Amino acid sequence: MAAREAVRFGEHTLTYAQLAAASGALAARLAGAGRVAVWATPTAETVVAVVAALRAGVPAVPLNPRTGTRELAHIVADSAPSAVLAAAGDVLPPELAALDRTDVGTSAAANSTVLPEPSPESPALIVYTSGTTGPPKGAVLPRRAIAASLDALADAWQWTGDDVLVHALPLFHVHGLILGVLGPLRRGGSVRHLGRFSTEGVARELSSGSTMLFGVPTMYHRLAEALGTDSPDAADLAKALAGARLLVSGSAALPVHDHERIAAATGRRVIERYGMTETLMNTGVRADGDPRPGTVGAPLRGVGLRLVEEDGTPLADPAAEGAVGEIQVRGPNLFTGYLNRPDATAAAFTEDGWFRTGDMATLDTDGYVRIVGRKATDLIKSGGHKIGAGEIENALLDHPGVREAAVTGEPDPDLGERIVAWVVPADPAAPPTEAELADHVAAQLAPHKRPRAVRHLAELPRNDMGKIMKRSLGR
Asked: Count of CB atoms within 10 A of residue 281's CB?
């Protein structure tokens, strides 16, 4: 085990013995610290820093190196770390100048210091939300939640120490850091990080021993595009993807169109899961389950999930046709609260302990969850109907003239809200017309779900995780 590869970033590899030595030496230095920030670059040094903090029982605050100055200053002031951990060559911004800096190395002699195992309820990570409705909030994630989520995924995905995961996700958030790094380490497997996503990198790593791929929809869209060519590279990519044990997409819904394109080229289905910063993982399609496009699977082991009406009462028949409700969850995977925000924490939970996700969904008869979007931005109330933006986006993406699409609602004096489609055309010189797209959606779904306005864009605004920032549309 000691000689087994734990992490690889390009040519930089750490075995389990090397990771244990480097993180152990750093953990001994961190013991007793209140909180530490981690300059979370996609490097082995970030892994050493986070593992060291976990071993020392010190809460770590991963910092996105691309965060703007105002947001970074807020996070530092709110979390009040005693130090920042960074690779020796990293140039840190002025907002971190007041913090003690600890340079992180990846080589060290074995350390005999044995630190006590922290309580399962003690905070492990403080991960900041995206701040779409105000300043980012620090979600306090206890060790218990991380262990519960990763073990539930191991059960669902038959994840073992024999698995080798490849991904190119950032290491400041749940997907890339907890699932993509701590997940393989908890199983005794290994992770190969591409540093920067490329279809060539995915093909190379999946062809040389990797068994799993984690990605966001933007990445899978690029894979689907690459598979659609007649080049030898496309054939190599198709063979590599076909040989993977598991292809997993998360952080946002993967359009059905890309699901189908990848399946047609490789014979393999991408599976999806559903989680949040505050809840970690809630649902997932099992490795031995039905990889149904448009769904995120059933609740994971230990997770309670229900759909509720606007007034908070559970849906009488959540599997009934047309039934849409807000997802509420509870279980050992949940965070303990928002740092310094007891008001926000209280508002996030019901009186009987269910977490209000703000995500709207439908439920299939076999328990599979279908996310229709965020309550605040993706649920459109038009003409007396509750309409999820996601199904309209999938319908638009089936049109050959549409490369990317997002759907929002805007006030309408007659309908309450009208459906607006934001479209990146496949051919900017000949974009599909409003009438053409309206008819296309009406034929696939229903007339009341057709867009009433179509606006063409060169690209959709996205954040670092590839999620479309709908609040930026129309500004």
From this structure: 27
- Lowest-confidence pick of 24-28, 291-295, 464-468: 464-468
Compute the half-sphere exposure of residue 152: CA atoms within 13 Å on the CB side of its CA. 27
CB burial string 25-51: b at 16+ within 10 A, e below: bbbbebeebebbbbbbbbbbbbbbbbb
User: Residues 272, 250: contact at Cβ < 8 Å?
Assistant: yes
Which stretch of DSSP H or E encloses residue 381? strand 379-382
Stated as kind and residue range, the H or E segment containing 420 is: strand 416-425
Q: Give the helix ranges, DSSP H, for 143-273.
A: 143-157, 183-187, 199-206, 217-227, 232-242, 256-266
Find the angle CA(451)-CA(452)-CA(458) to the nearest 5 degrees: 65
Q: Rounded to 5 degrees, what angle do the CA atoms 185, 191, 193 make?
A: 135
pLDDT digits (tens, 9 = 90+) for 332-381: 999 999 999 999 999 999 999 999 999 999 999 999 999 987 776 777 77
Q: Which two tokens stand for residue 121?
A: 């309820």
Q: Which 3 state secondary structure label does DSSP give 272?
A: strand
Is pLDDT larger for residue 257 or for residue 149? 149
Task: Read off the tokens for 276.
Answer: 């949040």
Of the chain, the end-to-end C-alpha distance in Å amounts to 54
- β-partners of residue 13 are 8
CA distances to 14, 16, 100, 166, 268 from 5, in Å: 6, 6, 32, 13, 27
SS3 87: strand
Residue 131 has pLDDT above 70, yes or no: no
pTM: 0.85
Sequence letter at residue 206: L
Question: Other CB atoms closer than 10 Å to residue 318's CB: what's the count?
Answer: 20
Q: What is the pLDDT of residue 414?
A: 72
Residue 355 CA to residue 366 CA, distance in Å, equals 23
Q: For the chain, what is the largest distance between any 2 Cα atoms, rounded to a whole number of angstroms? A: 72
Using CA atoms, how far residue 342 sits from 110, 336, 339, 346, in Å, is: 42, 11, 8, 6
CA distance 182 to 23: 14
Confidence of residue 321 (pLDDT cuts 50, 70, 90): confident
Q: How far is CA 35 from CA 31, 32, 83, 202, 350, in A?
A: 10, 9, 7, 36, 29
Backbone angles phi, psi at 423, to 5 degrees: -125, 135
Give the Cα separation of 285 and 271 in Å (integer). Answer: 6
Helix ranges (DSSP H) in 243-316: 256-266
| Other residues' Cβ atoms within 10 Å of the Cβ of residue 133 | 11
